[in-house]
Amino acid sequence: MAGGQSRGGGGVARGGQGGRAAKSGSHRKGAAIGSGGQRRKGLQGKGATPPAEQRTGHPAQRRAAAAAAARGGARRPSAQGQAGSSAGSGAAAGGSGGTGAHSARRGETDEFVVGRNAVVEALRAGVPASSLLIAGGLEFDERVADARRLAGRAGLTVVDVGRVELDRLCPNAPHQGLALSVPPFEYAHPDDVLAATQAAAPGLVVALDGVTDPRNLGAVVRSAAAFGANGVVVPERRAAGMTAAAWKTSAGAAARLPVARAVNLTRTLRSFAEAGLFIVGLAADGEVDIDDLQVAADPLVLVVGSEGRGLSRLVGECCDLKVRIPMAGAMESLNAGVATGIALAEIARRRRLAAPAS
């Protein structure tokens, strides 16, 4: 054999020897030649796959970058009053309501009120926003001009973006070339509402149980502010949050009245009761008419359920008393906004009568 590398030699085995060294004069395979630890590196993981927003070149990353550029680092205009969803007939894209420590929930992003009419209406209503996005190449339209003027008057950043980029930012509704970026609403803590109520004489809180229409929530906030309530409490789950639609319906009352979000409404109501507040539920099957509410002048919480199912069982069990609104005819229920306004007006009337003459 050439080169002296015969089968009986002490060299490295070939072919059928399977990569092992052959022992001289033996048909058995020798000891394996190690990899020197190099193969171990190939078995090491590279970590979790990053989210789409952080992958260079991914469409989601481009959308996130465009949204960040549109916001331009704008800060919240106040600690109480901001919103987060659709307005008027426009749709919205983005995050949902806030929570517990009671600004916006971690991971929430700005949403977009879209559509020319909806954007102009939101700007006229003073819905807190951070920037106005306008697609390039739009033909002249009075609503676009109005949006620019109102945004400039409010000190908002006006960003001209490409139509394709605006399509990516607002994929779920026709934006008509206009989108208003609205930061998440900053909620108060229920304990802050309780403290404000205890400091008032007498205190009044409105709590909503399962109200899912943001316009109803906005109407409740507006009525609560008008009739002297010290705050509104809404559940964190399965309920409307302070969206742009709710803000617009409230006519800006959310800037003056704290709105708190409770992780557990039942627990929050029990803590209010332990603090000395009387819990009154508004229900169609209430024991007494709202006209006969004798505790109206005491510190209390008025709890209002949804139009469809009313108060939930657990919330109903927290109530010290349930009252009803007397109605004529076959009408079975009123929506939450209207019912709350009627009840609050009666409570305010009784409190005026009970107040000592000056």
Q: Could you explain how this protein is built, in words?
A:
The chain is built from eleven helices and 14 strands. α3 (116-124) packs parallel to α4 and α7 runs parallel beside α11 (336-354). It has helices at residues 38-43, 59-71, 116-124, 142-153, 163-169, 190-199, 214-226, 244-249, 265-274, 313-318, 336-354, and strands at 20-22, 29-32, 92-93, 111-114, 131-135, 157-161, 178-182, 204-209, 231-235, 259-262, 278-282, 288-289, 300-305, 321-324. The protein is 31% helix and 17% strand. The strands form three sheets. A seven-stranded parallel β-sheet has the order 10-9-8-13-11-14-12, sandwiched between helices. A five-stranded mixed β-sheet has the order 3-4-7-5-6. It has 358 residues and is α/β, with parallel strands linked by helices.
Please outline the helices and strands.
Blueprint: E1 20-22, E2 29-32, H1 38-43, H2 59-71, E3 92-93, E4 111-114, H3 116-124, E5 131-135, H4 142-153, E6 157-161, H5 163-169, E7 178-182, H6 190-199, E8 204-209, H7 214-226, E9 231-235, H8 244-249, E10 259-262, H9 265-274, E11 278-282, E12 288-289, E13 300-305, H10 313-318, E14 321-324, H11 336-354
Parallel strand pairs: 5-6, 8-9, 8-13, 9-10, 11-13, 11-14, 12-14
Antiparallel strand pairs: 1-2, 3-4, 4-7, 5-7
Helix pairs in contact: 3-4, 7-11
